[in-house]
Structures are given as C-alpha cells and as structure tokens.
Design brief:
Elements (H helix, E strand, L loop, with lengths): L3 E2 L18 H7 L5 E4 L2 E4 L2 H9 L3 E3 L14 H4 L9 H11 L5 H5 L2 H16 L3 E3 H6 L3 H9 L6 H11 L7 H28 L5 H7 L9 H31 L2 H9 L4 H11 L5 E6 L3 E3 L2 E3 L4 E5 H4 L35 H18 L4 E2 L4 E2 L9 E3 L1 E3 L7
Parallel strand pairs: 1-8, 3-9
Antiparallel strand pairs: 2-3, 4-6, 5-13, 6-9, 7-8, 10-13, 11-12
Helix pairs in contact: 6-16, 8-12, 9-10, 9-12, 10-12, 12-14, 12-16, 13-16, 14-16
C-alpha cells in the first residue's frame, strides 16, 4: 500500500492557543480518530510510541534552526549568530555533542549538590518565618542562576546580570520577535562579551570550572573554537535557568495539590528522584518540541513531505495509557519502568538532564522538609501558553512557619 501524503488525510484538529498548550483531554479524544492530528502550526504526534520514534528519527530535524526565519528580524540578526546544539543536526551536531558531553555527566552534576543545598537553604531562610511566599519570585527565579555561575566559573555577585540575560535572551522563544528583538540583541551581545573575557582569562589561567574544562577538550586534534565556547556558554545559561525555574514551579504546584505526598517526601528524602520524574511526567515545563521533515519521509504509511512541521507532544506521550498504568494517577512512590519524554529523546535529548535532575532533587527534598503543611494560597497564575518554556507565573503558597528562622 502506497503511503498517502499527510496533507490528504482527514485528521482531528487540536485547538491550541500557543506552542505546547495542547490539552491532554483533547489529545486522548483525538486518538479515537487517528494517531496524527492537525494543529495551527502544522501537525502533531501525541502517542508515546510515535513521539519517541520521531524524536529518534534523524530525518526529522530540530525546528529551532528556523528561528532566524521568523518575522520581525529584518536584519536577520538571529540568523547571523553561531548555531547552538539546539538548532544543529547531522555531522555538525554529532561532532559538537561528542566534544562537550563528557562535561555533563551525573558525576559532574553531583559535585555541585552541596552548593545547590546552600543556595536553596538560603532562599527558604528568607520566607520560613512568615509561612507564606510567592514561590516563583521568592524561590524559583533566583535558585538556578548562582549554580550556573558556579558551574561556569563566574563570580556569584554576577548572578543578577546573568539572570537578566537569561530572561531577555529567552524572549526569542515567545513568539513576539518583532517587539523583543532589540532586547534579545542587547542581552546576547553583552553575554558574548562577558564570556569572551572569561575565555581569554581561562586560556592563560585555567581553574576548576566548566569553561576551563571545555577549553581543554580535545579529541583527535579537534577542539572547540572561541565562538563555539561562547555559544555553548549561552546555551548552558538559557537551558540551565529558565527550564529549572519553570519545572521547579510546576513540580511544587503539583505536589501542593497532593499534601500526603508532600508530607511523605519530607519524611523520606530518598524519594526525591522519583518525585522529580513523576512531577515532570505529570506536569512538564517543556510541553513538547517542534520538528520538521528534512526530506520526504515515510512513516507508518504516511508521507511527510520535506518541510512538514510536526509537533511532538510530551504532554500526550507522558499520559499515554498504552504505556503508563493509570497515567492520571500521581504517585511519587511508584517506580515507573518507562522514562518520561519531558527531557526529549534521541540526539537532542537534554544535554543538561543530569544537572537539572540534581537541582530539582536537592530543592524538592529540602523544601518538603522545611515547608511542612504546604498548601496553595490562592489560584495558580499560569504563564501564557505561547511561551517556549511554560509554568506558573505566580504560585502563592502557605506552610507552617519556622519560628527559629
């Protein structure tokens, strides 16, 4: 049987007000009609089997490479910037990933765990006595940046400017490029100048930090160029701040609605690893990723013509009952044999997954112990659905005050 073009198929439509906003109930209803769906951006795969397959099929490329073609960039500024791992595919991606991967092992992330605990403890100290906080602003936003600074080797006092750069550069994913481009441009150039100065210093005086380690990387005579080092530092700042901020807020929002499990985590901190994975499965900050067909592709008797945009829905995959037993049940004590897809899969699997897991594990274990009796203190204010990395905009919480703080 000849493959039919995806454009000829009668497919269910999924209403979407922005990238990643596909509703889980609507996704599951669409499965009664077809394994593919239409969205305003193109098409979507939402079952675990298909999301997993597309993410691991190297003929489907990351759509991040098409950011430079978005409207509003009349000088093609984004297109003139060196490409990062997020937008690379093929041999170019394989080479760079091979060079930098040894610096992002679980062992490397574990070295930062004592500092993670120090940072999160200090943030909880600032709200513990009151028994109330606005969790996003008080805890999530300031948490990851000092850790990224420590990782890169930047002074802790520069955390505020790093945080602002991360916020401003991440606007490129918010679907408002025409208005945001001047802010993105300024922040990008300031960060590049800062990192170049760090690289110049580390080339002559290496220290025990990631920049020095990446400068020293060599494989069969191949090294990272200065521009590749600068771009890698920008990627680490972006991926290591906004994702962690939003996922920590998502995870705590879920746990606040399950007070028995929050209490259990406070008593059994060894459950932190499972709590992280279960909250990421249940409510991931990254709702999915966009791919495009780099060539004509036949998959499951469907032809995806070259250039076809395809949304791979982590929301659908992580709630697929053909893979997960009782997927709607939230349970941090359950050891699930299948890995969630919030970190992606294939060659674009999150490079910083070990670091993110460590940050979230340390934060949740400490928060559950130091914020007993956690409850929502009003409705959650969610970010607009069109932001690239999604989560609560404001998360008001109450808990038992610590009179010793």
């Amino acid at each position: 049987m000849a493959a039919r073009s995806i454009h000829e198929l009668d497919l269910p439509s999924l209403r979407d007000t922005g990238v990643g906003a596909l509703d889980p109930a609507a996704i599951q209803a669409s499965w009664q009609h077809h394994w593919l769906s239409r969205t305003p951006l193109g098409f979507a795969v939402t079952r675990h089997e298909d999301v997993f397959a597309v993410l691991r099929d190297r003929r489907f490329h990351s759509a991040s490479s098409r950011l430079a073609k978005m409207p509003g960039d009349d000088e093609d500024y984004l297109g003139s910037l060196p490409r990062s791992l997020l937008s690379m595919d093929g041999n170019e991606h394989s080479r760079l990933r091979r060079l930098v991967s040894p610096a992002f092992t679980p062992k490397a992330a574990d070295r930062l765990r004592p500092y993670m605990r120090e940072v999160i403890n200090a943030l909880v100290d600032s709200v513990a006595a009151s028994g109330r906080c606005e969790f996003v602003g008080d805890i999530c936003d300031p948490y990851p940046v000092p850790i990224i600074c420590r990782l890169l080797g930047a002074p802790t006092q520069d955390s505020k400017i790093f945080s602002q750069w991360a916020t401003d550069i991440h606007r490129k994913f918010n679907n408002n490029l025409a208005a945001d481009l001047p802010v993105i441009r300024r922040a990008t150039e300031e960060l590049k100048d800062y990192v170049r100065a760090m690289i110049d210093e580390r080339r002559t005086t290496p220290t025990n930090d990631l920049i020095s380690e990446l400068i020293a990387v060599e494989e069969q005579g191949d090294r990272l160029s200065t521009e590749e080092l600068v771009t890698m530092a920008e990627l680490i700042l972006m991926a290591g701040t906004d994702t962690t901020r939003n996922q920590l807020a998502c995870s705590v929002a879920v746990l606040a609605e399950h007070p028995d499990q929050w209490a259990l985590l406070g008593q059994r901190p060894e459950l932190a690893a499972q709590a992280v994975d279960e909250t990421m499965r249940h409510l991931g900050a990254l709702r999915g990723t966009l791919r495009f067909a780099a060539e004509d592709i036949e998959y499951r008797d469907v032809l995806f013509p070259r250039g076809t945009l395809l949304w791979t829905s982590a929301v659908g995959a992580n709630m697929d009952p053909s893979v997960w037993e009782a997927p709607e049940t939230f349970d941090i004590t359950q050891k699930r044999s299948i890995q969630h897809l919030t970190f992606g899969s294939g060659i674009h699997y999150c490079l910083g997954a070990s670091l993110a897991r460590a940050e979230l594990q340390e934060a949740l274990a400490l928060l559950a112990r130091r914020m007993p009796g956690l409850t929502l203190d009003g409705p959650v204010d969610w970010q607009p659905s069109n932001v690239g990395i999604w989560g609560p905009a404001r998360l008001r919480l109450r808990f038992q005050p610590d009179v010793r703080a």
